[in-house]
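User: Sequence for L-amino acid N-acyltransferase YncA below. Tokens please.
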Amino acid sequence: MEQVKRKEKLNSEEICIELATTENLDQIVAICIEGYTRAAAVKDKQKVQKKVEEYYYPERILKEIENVSSKWSGWIVARLDEKVIGVIGGGIVDSKVAKISDLYIDPDYLRERIGKRLVDHLTQMQQLLGNHTQLASLFKSNKESLLFYEALGFKQIHDNSDNESSDFTSIEMVRDI
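Assistant: Structure tokens for L-amino acid N-acyltransferase YncA:
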């Protein structure tokens, strides 16, 4: 993604939070790939590329855009005009537990409260379905994301080790919603 230096803060009214459409596909894939690569902070770029190809290929994301259900809340985007600057995806684990599966923000728009707005939007959708608990997973090495989720009231519950590499160890977090 092209790096653009911005001097002024965004007006939150300029940003539209909405369910993704097929028109957003390429931008969602690009933000997810860049965000995953940045969050993983793994030295072995081939392993990161393998994971990216497993999770963020266009056919999979398209299917998830088109097949919103009570189990999968879909992809939600933050748009500034026609540009997607943030994405979140999540769904339902069981009758009372929801999950944030993915949350990525264009690095040019970090610290603009876009992540919080996306989480709030998905959380409201999940609450309407009767969920009272929300899970999130993130890389153990991603201290910035850890602080973000803690600020939202999430607590660490356990680590999930990756069978292929300890670099991909994640933290499972939980909060009441």
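The longest strand covers residues 83-94.
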